[in-house]
Amino acid sequence: MPATPDGPIAIYYEHPDWFKPLFAELDRRGLQYERIDAASHSYDPSESTSPYSLVFNRASPSAYLRGHGQVTFHTQSWLRHLERVGVPVVNGAACYGMETSKALQLDILQELGLPYPRARVINNAELAGDAARGLRFPVIVKANIGGSGAGITRFDTPANLQEAALTGRIDLGVDRVALVQELAPLRDDTSPASKSSMENFYTQSTFTRPKIRSISAPPTSARQRTAKSSREPRAPLTRRRMECASSSSSRRGRLSVRSSGLPSV
User: Fold this and answer.
1) What is the CATH number of the domain that holds 165?
2) Tens digits of per-residue pLDDT, 171-223?
3) Domain that holds residue 16
4) Pick from 240, 247, 261, 254: which is nearest to 76 by CA?
5) Please, which contacts does 26-34 make with residues 24 or more away whose CB atoms are closer than 8 Å?
6) Is the same domain home to 120 and 217?
7) Are 127 and 220 contained in the same domain?
8) pTM of the prediction?
9) Phi then psi for 49, rounded to 5 degrees?
């Protein structure tokens, strides 16, 4: 069997502090696991077995902010390798691919018929001004791979954006790809232009309108997301979402993650 059923759980992580509670809980339960530093890792592409019973991927797209820009691309390759070998993976290659590409996330929203601020994808900063034509200002330039609000710059006018593009003041991020996107209208802006933009943005949606605070607002907590999703209609399961779900399944059965965050088969 490619995976080792009685082998340890591999916790693949990069941030030095985020997973201390998880490690403490695993230790308390006496579970066998191995910590794997995503910023200093190697593997053999020719191997056909693995010593792990399960790999729990918790690499973050914001790793480059801590000087670990290599993590994202190495992780993508290793996850595909693990799935080829047949090792069960939580947050596998398909899921991680979605997490590390804002451009792909917009494609998924489009496929699901969900509204989002209009955007253009660029791979050359000098194209930012041209890409923003037809978009409502203010706009933001957002790195394709980012996290915790990193790599986001606001431009209030086309002139400001064009000047930044031509003077090399736009950072496209670690993969040199970025989004030029309309800034989501704020609910506390009562100007006629903002009201019109808000109505246009949400017209296609039957979901409850979220309260948008700012471009740098922290993500909603997992508990709030769970409560919100129970009130909203569920989106159809598209092929991409099915691939993401299947990437976390073993050949012996489905994987689940308990509320404590500990994976189980």
Assistant:
1) 3.30.1490.20
2) 898 899 999 999 987 665 555 544 444 445 444 433 333 333 333 333 444 44
3) 9-99+239-264
4) 247
5) 26/262, 29/262, 31/262, 32/7, 32/8, 33/8, 33/9, 34/8, 34/9, 34/10
6) yes
7) yes
8) 0.68
9) -135, 165
